[in-house]
């Protein structure tokens, strides 16, 4: 697999890479770069190949294989990779406006996405999820941090570090993966699960966008996992929120029994997404929120870390 995705050569001959990191995670950093030949803007993830004495190359190559074979307008594009000593440099599409998380952080300052703008972002993500599910792939970590945006209003799903490929021999998984506050009950309990765990996470994402944080965020992660299983998640309850968005979240996504949840294809035909804002309207909102965004003094890399 390595021969398929890792390019031989020196990326420094092809790319001008900024010295300052634009994102940092536990296993590497993200740097902004431009292609010397055509000035294409890219994000380069410099990932450690070893962590705590374990070889991470097979893990990284699995993510690369999934994203490299998942070409879709709503999935962040993979370009190429280079092995550079103790690191693997992964060149990805650059998303110029950070992530939805950056917008959610402005929620307390009154900069909020209305239902139509939320519907637009979620529709774009759901299109990507539908594409993955049609290929028997599960993302398993859909959340605002992994939904990246561009200044032109493009919305794309990123970070396939926990994604898996289902096979005909194994159409359900039992391994624990994802972010605690977004995990479906069956995933937490390690009951065999399928792609419906992504539908649950879409519902939690809408809750966070509308309320400023996901359910049980006041609890530590372990307590949150217990609460999701024992208490269940109510979803959206504010009387100011429309019945359409409540139905989408509470009745289509956040059903405790996964068989009661909608499929990604069914979500795409739901009235909530049918009333989505346009790409141009979303881009306008991004422009209007940019002043407040910079006042916060925060921003994300436009590419997530594994």
From TrEMBL:
The reactions it catalyses are: L-threonyl-[protein] + ATP = O-phospho-L-threonyl-[protein] + ADP + H(+); L-seryl-[protein] + ATP = O-phospho-L-seryl-[protein] + ADP + H(+)
Tell whether Nucleotide-binding is among the UniProt keywords: yes
Q: Which Pfam families match?
A: Pkinase
Keywords from the named record: ATP-binding, Kinase, Nucleotide-binding, Serine/threonine-protein kinase, Transferase
Write out the GO cellular component annotations. cytoplasm
Question: Which Gene3D superfamilies does the entry mention?
Answer: Transferase(Phosphotransferase) domain 1
**TM annotation in the entry:** none
Q: Which residue range or ranges hold the Protein kinase domain?
A: 16-273
Q: Which GO terms describe its molecular function?
A: ATP binding; protein serine/threonine kinase activity
Protein name as catalogued: Protein kinase domain-containing protein
